[in-house]
Specification:
The complex is a heterodimer of chains A (251) and B (379).
Chain A lengths: L2 H42 L6 H19 L5 H28 L23 H34 L5 H40 L4 H6 L1 H32 L4
Chain B lengths: L1 H9 L2 H22 L9 E16 L5 E13 L8 E9 L13 E9 L6 E8 L2 H46 L5 H21 L3 H27 L17 H34 L5 H29 L2 H9 L4 H44 L1
Parallel strand pairs in B: 3-5
Antiparallel strand pairs in B: 1-2, 1-4, 2-3, 4-5
Helix pairs in contact in B: 2-3, 3-4, 4-5, 4-6, 5-6, 5-9, 6-7, 6-9, 7-9, 8-9
The chains are: A mainly alpha (251), B alpha+beta (379).
Chain lengths: 251, 379
C-alpha cells in the first residue's frame, strides 16, 4: 500500500470522527487547495502569464475555500476574506521588492549539481515565482489569523451593539496579540521542519558564518521565515480595522 | 499629527530615552552592515556602471524561448589589498534568472580577482556571489518593528521565542553532527520537550493552562510521530521518493522523520494551548459547569480550528516545491514523475502533521479536564 494513501486515509477517518461534517469539509478543503496550487503551477509555466497576478488570483481562490467553504458565507467570513486579500497584496509588494533586491530567486549553487540535466533557460520569471512561493507559504496562516480575529470581534459587537468603532478596533488588536505568539510559532516550526535537511547539510559543508549568511539558499530561507512572520502580524491591524469599519456604522 | 505629538508628551523621559537608544541601535546596525566589508576575506566589489553588450535568443530542446544577455560591469573593490581599485567584470544572465542575476549600479558582489593588466592597471575578475547580508538585516528589522508595533509585549515574546528556538535547534544539530552514532530522533525528542516548554511558557506564562498544554503537546506530537513511523514501516515507505534528500550524507529517512516531527510541533502547540485556555476560560466564567458540557464545547472548538491549522502546514510544505516543479514541467518531465519526485515527502509531512493536529484536539481536551477534575477534587 502507498504510504501517502494510508496517511491520507487515517487523516480522513480522524477528521470525520472528531470533526463530523466540518471535519469532512476541512479534509476536502485540503484537496481543493492542492488543486488550486496545481492549476497555478500549470499557469505559471506560461511565460505570458504574470506570476504575481496569478498568485493573487490563486490566493483569492484559496481564501474562498478556507473561509467560505469550510465555514459559511457570513459577515465574519466576508470581512476575513477582504482582510486576507488586502494583506496578501500589501505583503506581496514588500516581498517582491525584497526578492528582487536580495536576489534570492531560483536555485542556489549548492542545488545546481542535482539539476544538471535540466535546461534552466525556460523563459519564466523566477524572481516573481520566488515572491509567489513566499506568499503562498503564508496564505494558510494569514486566512487563519483573519478568521480568528474577525469571528470574536463579531461576538463582541453582538453583545455590545453600542461599542464604538475605535473600541472595537482596539479589542480586535488585543485578540490579535493573544494569537500572535502561537501563530508565529506554528509557522516557525513548520519552516524549521521543512528546512531541517538543508540546515544539516549547511552544517556539514563547514561554511564560515559569512558564507552561510550570504548564500542564496540560507538567506532565502531566513527571508521567507521573516516575511511569514511579518504577514501574520500585519493581518492583525488590517483585519481589526476592516471588521470594525464594517460592523460599526459611522455616526 | 496632534495625536502623534500628544503621544510623545505622554511618554516618560525614561521611555523616550530607551526609544531613542533603540532607534540609534537600528541605524547603527544598518550603517555597520553597509560598511562591514573588512569582515570578509573574499574580495567584495560595488558595481558602479553596467553596460549591456550582447543579447542572444535561445530555445531549449522543448521549445521554450529565453534570451541570454551579457553585461559588462565596472566595480570598485571595497576590501583587502586592492581596496579602492576598479575591477572589470562580465556577467551573463537570462530572462528566467533561475541561476543567474542581472546587476545594477549599487549592487555589492563577492568577486575573485583573475588577472591584472600591466599596461593600464585594470583588474579583471569574475563574480562569485551576491552580498546579501544587508537585505537580510533590513528584513529582520522590518520583522522586529512590525512585531513590536503591532504585538507589543506578545510581539517581543514571539521574537524571543524564535531566537531561542533557532539557537536551540542549531545546538541540537551540532550535537547530532559531532555524535553521528547518536540517534537524531532521540536528540530531537529532547529538543522537542525543551521547545514545547519554552515556547508555551513564553506564549502563556506559568499557570495550569500552560501545564495542561505542555502535556497535551508532548502526547500529541509523540502519538503522531508513532503513527507516521508505523505507517512508513507497514507500507515499507512505498510511494515516498527520497531523491530530493539524497544530497545529505546522513541517513535521510531519519532526517525526514525528524523534520516531520519538528514541523508539526508548532501547530500541535497551537491546538493544545487553544483547547486548554478555552476550557479553563469556561470554568472561570461558570465554575459549576458539568464535565459533559465542557467536552461538548471543547469538541466544537476543536472542529473550528482543525481545518485552518492543517491548511497552514499544508501551504508551508507544498509551496516550497513550486519552482522545482516548474523546472521539471518545462523540461518535459512526465506529470506523475515530477509530482512524486518533488511532492511525496511534502505531502507525507503535511498529512502526518494533520494527523497530529486532529489527535491533539481530544488529547488536549481530556488532559485539561483531568487537570480540572484534580483541582475540583482538591477543593
Amino acid at each position: 500500500m502507498n504510504a501517502l494513501v494510508v496517511l491520507a486515509a487515517i487523516l480522513f477517518i480522524l477528521m470525520t470522527v472528531i470533526g463530523k461534517g466540518k471535519g469532512v469539509r476541512s479534509f476536502f478543503a485540503l484537496f481543493f487547495n492542492f488543486a488550486v496550487i496545481f492549476i497555478t503551477i500549470i499557469f505559471l509555466n506560461d511565460p505570458n502569464v504574470n506570476p504575481i497576478t496569478m498568485t493573487i488570483i490563486a490566493c483569492i481562490f484559496i481564501s474562498i475555500i478556507n473561509l467560505f467553504y469550510i465555514n459559511d458565507v457570513n459577515k465574519t467570513t466576508k470581512t476575513a476574506f477582504l482582510s486576507t486579500v488586502i494583506s496578501t497584496v500589501i505583503l506581496l509588494v514588500f516581498i517582491f521588492i525584497v526578492t528582487d533586491k536580495a536576489r534570492i530567486q531560483g536555485f542556489g549553487e549548492e542545488e545546481i549539481q542535482e539539476l544538471g540535466m535540466f535546461s534552466l533557460y525556460i523563459g519564466v520569471d523566477f524572481v516573481k515565482i520566488a515572491s509567489a512561493v513566499i506568499i503562498m507559504s503564508t496564505i494558510g496562516a494569514i486566512t487563519d489569523a483573519a478568521i480568528a480575529i474577525s469571528s470574536p470581534m463579531r461576538e463582541i459587537h453582538f453583545h455590545n451593539p453600542d461599542i464604538s468603532r475605535q473600541e472595537l478596533f482596539k479589542s480586535g488588536l488585543s485578540i490579535g496579540r493573544d494569537i500572535l505568539g502561537t501563530s508565529t510559532n506554528t509557522l516557525f516550526f513548520a519552516f524549521f521542519g521543512s528546512y531541517l535537511a538543508l540546515l544539516i547539510w549547511f552544517k556539514d559543508l563547514t561554511y564560515t558564518p559569512g558564507e552561510i549568511i550570504n548564500s542564496k539558499i540560507f538567506s532565502a530561507e531566513m527571508i521567507t521565515i521573516l516575511c511569514a512572520g511579518i504577514g501574520v502580524t500585519l493581518v492583525i491591524p488590517i483585519t481589526s480595522w476592516i471588521t470594525a469599519y464594517y460592523l460599526v456604522a459611522r455616526k | 499629527m496632534n495625536s502623534f505629538i500628544n503621544l510623545f508628551k505622554n511618554m516618560s523621559y525614561k521611555r523616550i530615552i530607551s526609544l531613542s537608544l533603540f532607534v540609534l541601535f537600528i541605524v547603527a546596525s544598518i550603517v555597520f552592515v553597509q560598511h562591514n566589508h573588512f569582515l570578509y576575506e573574499r574580495p567584495i566589489a560595488k558595481v558602479l556602471e553596467t553596460e549591456l553588450v550582447d543579447k542572444t535568443a535561445t530555445e531549449n530542446p522543448f521549445g521554450h524561448k529565453d534570451a541570454l544577455f551579457t553585461q559588462r560591469l565596472i566595480a570598485e573593490i571595497k576590501n583587502g589589498e586592492e581596496k579602492g581599485r576598479l575591477i572589470h567584470l562580465v556577467n551573463e544572465f537570462s530572462v528566467s534568472k533561475a541561476y543567474d542575476h542581472e546587476f545594477e549600479a549599487g549592487d555589492e558582489l563577492f568577486v575573485s580577482i583573475d588577472s591584472e593588466n600591466a599596461e593600464n592597471g585594470d583588474i579583471h575578475g569574475s563574480i562569485q556571489d551576491v552580498k546579501r547580508d544587508t537585505y537580510l538585516l533590513y528584513v529582520a528589522w522590518v520583522f522586529v518593528l512590525v512585531l513590536l508595533i503591532v504585538g507589543r509585549k506578545q510581539g517581543l515574546f514571539s521574537i524571543i521565542s524564535l531566537v531561542i528556538n533557532a539557537i536551540l535547534l542549531s545546538y541540537a544539530l551540532d550535537i547530532y553532527l559531532s555524535n553521528p552514532h547518536w540517534s537524531l530522533l532521540l536528540i530531537s525528542s529532547f529538543a522537542v520537550v525543551l521547545f514545547t516548554v519554552i515556547s508555551l511558557l513564553l506564549v502563556n506564562g506559568l499557570n495550569e493552562k500552560t501545564y495542561a498544554a505542555i502535556i497535551a503537546t508532548l502526547l500529541g506530537t509523540f502519538a503522531s510521530l508513532f503513527i507516521a513511523w508505523l505507517v512508513l514501516w507497514l507500507t515499507t515507505e512505498k510511494g515516498l521518493r527520497y531523491e530530493e534528500l539524497q544530497f545529505i550524507t546522513r541517513p535521510y529517512q531519519v532526517v525526514f522523520l525528524t523534520g516531520l516531527f519538528l514541523g508539526s510541533l508548532g501547530a500541535v502547540m497551537d491546538i493544545a494551548i487553544t483547547m486548554s485556555s478555552s476550557i479553563f476560560n469556561m470554568i472561570e466564567k461558570n465554575p459549576k459547569i458539568p464535565v459533559k458540557a465542557l467536552i461538548k464545547s471543547g469538541m466544537e472548538i476543536g472542529k473550528d480550528i482543525m481545518g485552518t491549522m492543517t491548511n497552514i502546514l499544508f501551504f508551508v510544505y507544498i509551496s516550497g516545491s513550486i519552482p522545482i516543479l516548474i523546472l521539471y514541467f518545462k523540461n518535459g518531465s512526465p506529470l506523475g514523475f515530477a509530482l512524486s519526485m518533488n511532492l511525496s515527502l511534502e505531502l507525507a509531512r503535511a498529512l502526518a502533521g494533520g494527523i497530529g493536529i486532529v489527535l491533539t484536539i481530544p488529547i488536549g481536551l481530556y488532559v485539561t479536564i483531568f487537570f480540572i477534575k484534580r483541582k475540583r477534587a482538591g477543593l
